[in-house]
Amino acid sequence: MECSERGQSEVIGVVLLLGITIAAVTVTVATGSAALGLVTDEARSASVENGMSQLSSQSSLVALGETDARRFDLGSVDGGQLRLDKEAGRVEVRIEQGDSDTPIYNGSLGTLEYVGEDRTVALQGGGVWASQNGHGRMISPPEYHYRKSTLTFPVVGLTGNESTPSSGTGVVRQTPDDPDAVDAPENPLQNGTVVVEVQSEYYEGWYDFFSQRSDGDVTKDDANRTTTARLVVPDEVSFDKALAVSDPDGYSHSGKPDNELNEGDYVEGMSFPSPRSLIANQIAAAAADNDNTTESCVTASGFDGCGTVESGVYYFGGDAEVTGDLRFDTSDGDIVVAVDGDFDIGDNDVTVEDGTNNVTYYVNGSLDLQGSPTVSVDNTSRNQFYVNEGFLDGSAGDGGPTIEAIVYAPNADVVTKGNPTLRGAFVMKSLSTGGNAKVEYDDSLGEQKIRVTGGAGENPITYLHVSENEVEIEFDR
C-alpha cells in the first residue's frame, strides 16, 4: 500500500513539473514575441525616419528649384503602411491690423505618412514628424526661417496620384508654380501682426518648433489641433493728437462739458503694438548695467526722498515708488528709469529741469499717481512713459494730478472720476473721464514720433517672404 502511494506521488510530481515548465516556456515565448515585435517595429520606424529625413532634404531641393527631380528610398516599409494625403495639414499666413485681416496664403500642406504598429512617421511642410501614443513631435525642422526681423517661409506642399503606395522608393518632382497662390505683401511691412497658423495632426511638433527655434508668441489649440505663431511689425506712432485709443468707442467724458475733447483732438479705433517687448529689453539692459549706486537715495524700492537725481540709468527689480518731491537734472545726458513692476509717484512732484535731454520711463506694470502731484517738464517730448499695464489706477477719487508727458500705455483701460490734467499726448486702450478732468495737446510736439517693436508676438518682423513650392511624389510600382 505504501509503495503504491509513493509511486502515485512521483507521477503527480512529474506532471506538475512538466506543467510548470510548459507554462513558463509559453509565457517566455509570448513575452519574447511581443518584445521582439516592439523592437522590430521600432527598428523599422527608425529606418523610415532616416529615409523620411533624406526625402525631406531632397524634396526641399526640388521645391526650391535646386534640381528638377530626385530619387528617394524610404527603406523597408513592409511592417507598416504608407499613406499620401495631399489635403492633410493646412497652413494660413495673414496680417492682422486692428479689426481687419490681410490674407497672404492659405493652402494644404499635404502629408506622407508611414503608419507602423506603435508609431507614425510623416513628411509635412518640408519637416519630418512623428506621432506616438497620441503625442506629436518634430524629427527634422520644416522650411521656415526667422532671422533678424525677416521671415522666409517657402511652403513645401506634397501631391501625388497614389494614396496607399506599396513601395518605399520613387521620384520627387517639381510641379509648375501657381502665381496666384500667394498675395505677396509690400515690404517693408508697415504695421500689424503677422500670423502663421498650422492645422495638423502633428500640431504639437509644430508648436515645439515655433516655440524653441523660430521665435514669436506661440499658442496651440488642442481641440482644433492647431498651432499659431505671431510676429509683430514694428510700428511708428505719431503723436499729433491729444488722445489716441484703440477701442472703437474708447473715449467718453461725463464731467465738465467745456473739458470734453473736440472730435479733431482725439482718435478712436487705432491699432497699437504692445510696448511689452520694448520694456522687457530696456529692463534687461538696465538690470545688467545701471547707475543705482551713484545716487544714495536710489534704493531697491524706488526714489527715497531724493531731491535731485543726475543723468544715468536707474533700475528697480519690482514695484517702485517716489517718496518726497523729485527733481531730474539732465544737464549731463538722458535719464532712464526702468521698473519691473508698478511705479507709484504718489502725491509727490516730479520735475525735469536743466539741459535739453530726455527722461524716459519703462514700466512693466502700472503707472499710478494719487492726490495732486505734478509731473512737469518744459517740453513734453522730453518726458516719455512706456507703460505695459494700467495708468492712473489709483486716481479715481477727488485728486487732481497733473502730468506733462508722452504716455504710451495702449493696454490701459483708464477710468478716472477725479480731476487730472493730462497735457501732452496719450495713447491708451480707453479713457473715461469725469469731474474737472482735462486732456490737452502740447503743440510743441509737432512731428514727434516713436517706433515701437514687439507686441502680442513679442518678436518684431519687418520683411515677410512667403512662397508656394509644391512637389509631386511618384512611387515605383
Keyphrases for this structure?
single chain, 477 residues, alpha/beta, 2 domains, 14-stranded parallel β-sheet, 5-stranded mixed β-sheet, 3 helices, 36 strands
Lay out the secondary structure:
Layout: H1 2-63, E1 69-73, E2 81-85, E3 90-97, E4 100-108, E5 111-115, E6 120-124, E7 127-132, E8 135-140, E9 145-147, E10 150-159, E11 169-174, E12 193-199, H2 203-214, E13 217-221, E14 226-232, E15 235-238, E16 243-245, E17 251-253, E18 266-267, H3 276-288, E19 298-299, E20 302-304, E21 307-309, E22 312-316, E23 320-323, E24 326-329, E25 335-339, E26 343-346, E27 350-353, E28 359-363, E29 367-369, E30 374-376, E31 383-387, E32 402-416, E33 421-433, E34 438-441, E35 449-452, E36 463-475
Parallel strand pairs: 10-36, 16-18, 16-33, 17-33, 20-23, 21-24, 22-25, 23-26, 24-27, 25-28, 26-29, 27-30, 28-31, 30-32, 31-32, 32-33, 33-34
Antiparallel strand pairs: 1-11, 2-5, 3-4, 3-12, 5-6, 6-7, 7-8, 9-10, 11-36, 12-14, 13-14, 15-35, 19-20
